[in-house]
Each structure stands twice: as C-alpha cells, then as structure tokens.
Amino acid sequence: MILFDTSAIIDFLKGGPKTKSIVEETERNRENIYTTVISQYELLTPVYHRGLKSEERNIRAFLRRSVVYPLDQKAAEESSRIMGGLFKLGLPVNALDTLIAGIAVATGTDKIATLDGDFVQIAKITNLEIIII
User: Fold this and answer.
1) CA 128 to CA 2: how far, in whole Å?
2) At how many degrees (to 10) do helices 6-13 and 37-50 cross?
C-alpha cells in the first residue's frame, strides 16, 4: 500500500503526470489512497492563511477519496524512534516528515510517494520503500 505525503498530493493537484499515474493505477487496482492527518494539516494551513477557496475544494476532494491516518500513540512512538535514529546518524530531517513516516510504519504501510528528499534519509533506518516522484 502506498501512502502519499504532502508533496505528492500537491504534485497530483497540480496535474503532475507521474503522481497522477500512480493515483490512477492505485484506483484501477481497487486499492485505497492513503495519506495522513499531518498532510491534511500541511495542505489546509495555506488555505486558511491565504483564503484559497479553489485549492481548498481540490484538497478536500482528494482527502474525501483517501484514507486519512491519524497520529496516535503507536505512530508517535514510531516517529520518535525514527527521529532518534536519524539524530544518531547525524541526519535530522523535518519533524513533520518523521511524523508521516511514523504513521506509515505504525499502519503497516510499505511505500511512501513523495517529492521530498528527507524520506530518502528516513528510508535508511526503516523498511519503507520511497517512491521519489
């Protein structure tokens, strides 16, 4: 199962062909689209900041067709383990990316679609396959 991080969702909403292809293939295979409440937060913050009504409609439509995983205690524990491991290696990354990765690990997700290079570092200490778009 593939989890779409914030950058992949933004790319999809902008018509990015590779992300669009992944979403279409996922739906063609009758699989769910997965994302996280962290990405929901990242996507909606500029909507409230700048009043982006047309973008809001598209974001909410994407979220409606997705399974949006929450940040629970298990995911927080996994996120902490990931960030701690990255600190030990001298590879700290954006905290929101570790929360997304922690949610992915906690839910049994095996792949993350992203444009964000931080996930390449995260993959060094997890079993997540990173699909760089």
Assistant:
1) 10
2) 50
CA-CA-CA-CA dihedral for 120, 126, 128, 133, to nearest 10: -10
Domain of 85, in residue numbers: 2-132
Whichever domain contains 127, its CATH number is 3.40.50.1010
Which tokens go with 58? 């598209």
Question: What total number of domains does the chain contain?
Answer: 1
For residue 126, give the DSSP letter: S
pLDDT digits (tens, 9 = 90+) for 110-132: 999 999 999 999 999 999 999 99
**Model pLDDT for residues 90-107, shown as the tens digit of each residue:** 998 999 999 999 999 999
CA distance 67 to 88: 33
pTM score of the predicted model: 0.94
Interatomic CA distance for residues 74 and 61, integer angstroms: 28
Distance CA 124, CA 45 (A): 30
